Amino acid sequence: MEMIMETETATTLNGFELVYKKPSTLTDTPFHYCPGCGHSVVHRLLMEVIEELGIQEQTVGVAPVGCSVFAYNYMNIDMQEAAHGRASAVATGIKRILPDKFVFSYQGDGDLAAIGTAETVHTVNRGENILMIFINNAIYGMTGGQMAPTTLLKQVTSTSPYGRNKEAMGYPLKITELLAQLPGAYYVSRQAVYNVNAVRKLKKAIEKSFAYQKLNRGTSFIEVVSNCPSGWKMTPVESNVWLEKNMFPQYPLGDIKTPKD
Amino acid sequence: MIKGTVIIDRDICKGCELCIVACPQESLGLSKQININGYRFAELVQDNCTGCVNCALVCPDVAITVYRQPKSAIKNAG
Amino acid sequence: MEQEKISKNEASQNGREARLMKGNEALAEAAIRAGIDAYFGYPITPQSEVLEYFTNEMPKRHGVVLQAESEVAAINMIYGAAGAGGRVMTSSSSPGVSLMQEGISYIASAQLPCLIVNVSRGGPGLGTIQPSQGDYFQAVKGGGHGDYHLAVLAPSSVQEMADFVFDAFRLAEKYRIPAMILADGALGQMMEKVILPEEGSLPKMQKPWATTGKPNSRERNIITSLFIEPEKMEMINLGLQEKYRQMQSEVRFEEFALDDADIALVAFGLSARICQKVVDLAREKGIKAGLLRPITLYPFPKDILSKLAEKVNFMLVVEMNAGQMIEDVALAANGKCPVYFKGRMGGMIPSPEEVLKELESLVEKQSVSQD
Description:
Chain A has helices spanning 39-53, 71-74, 87-97, 109-115, 117-125, 166-169, 175-180, 196-215, 229-232, 236-250; strands at 12-13, 16-20, 59-63, 78-81, 102-108, 131-136, 185-192, 219-225, 254-257. By secondary structure, chain A is an alpha/beta fold.
């Protein structure tokens, strides 16, 4: 493949039109995530929506403790770093002070469904007008692959080396369904980024949640079933195959609660 | 057939291959060389890209910029 | 405690209203008058009236009040709201303040101004609901992880419960640190006359660092306590320590009958009220005692104590704990005079008589050793 002479302008290349480029709401810092990790895809979609809606100046985000603890290095908006498990409480504090700004919290499964369970349940129960993004990759990535509340039965992790067994370690926690029961939950959806269609659907769900947030009718909650190639000890491509086969039966995709009107 | 092309930032790419499996045209493959971070990076291996953007949508590192032939060019190419 | 002798009508003339109020309620009323944007709290005896007062008053006036699901959630709401530029406050009592320690460490590291009130109660553990000063170390030495301090003010009257809200916010916003009012259950529950501060008389500060939404005109603001490179984390620490050095100028204390005293009582908060009585009783018995009352527990008034230690025969530290501030008093005295301790624990309040008895036995013991 010889190198074609590239005469590039901002929007054309050899007469071809630019049809896809990185959103301006992402910084120039390369992602630190492991190869193939879904986190940064979600970061990008979030920033694409913020760019398209032109709400960079109207949005404040909250990063958790976990692999996405450095989310603010990539998201070119005002952000706060929360203590482990407390992102939705921090987001509540922000939203109560800045009620007309868009506020979102971004958390992993350990952050949201283990140490932060009380904050998660009560933030949604209060119907805080924020978007809660929940990345479920069934493992604690940052700390080296330990079992999470959403780890599947029999799934091997560094703290369930013989596979998760319910007698000692309980069941995979379907927190999203739990939260959907709460009247404060206005829009609840479970999406993924394991292939192109899923990525497109997730973007629509994010767009919907920002539209809903303006209505002040309650919390939007989006779970993203995602992969963890390093923690699962698979290649990125294998991880998405495994995810489809094993995670989706336990965590079925789709809108779980949508507003009636 | 619409023609397109992609620019892949070889030093950002981590060789995760997700774009390769997402490409309907099998236009992409892993390079033989490695980038500054030691990853084999994705690159065009066939000239049959249609600029469908699949690869860019799944790329975790936003390493791919996509260009596509404008419709007008195809009409007069007839 | 000689209170400002302002008659009721005089007070109301200069816009300052006089009322008979509980300490907890005077604190909350002062906070509303200080223009707080939000209060996040949780019920715990002996300070639930603070939260109740806000839920009654704020809807009629201004400010957000939210009862959180726990003190852990409340302090993290404080973090978020303070980081978004709000003037914010929480209050709790000993066990609840223990739950807040991690959040307070984050707030100190992220350099967020806010007010935390501890209406202390007897411990450890679930303890009792009676007053105590057993949280001195937690408040003054930093109860969470890492090297940090709060500005700590110790009121000893309902008047100071109100006044110190303004003072605490001034310190918090001037130095971008968490400030604490270390009170106790008695001060929270007792009723006294209080001259209330003027509504809105505490100017709001510009907070260009707050996360209010990134306009094109500036880089994004990030509120964080995470600095993964140790060089950067050390820079943050050096900055904090420099702040604490500058705060030494904010030391406050009150002196009673120390001019001719050859014995100094040292006590803060409720214990200081008791010791004032002890000074009177001692002087009736010809014992020239005086009292040094630290008002800022951090920064600690070590210079005045160091000078005092050169003048008095001994110091008697009186606290409602097993002896905590005495360590700082002894450090300040630096061996220049003996420093003795008299305290009660578990929510018991020392009586003036029992402190006087201790004082007399020390005087006797000392005069025997001098003959």
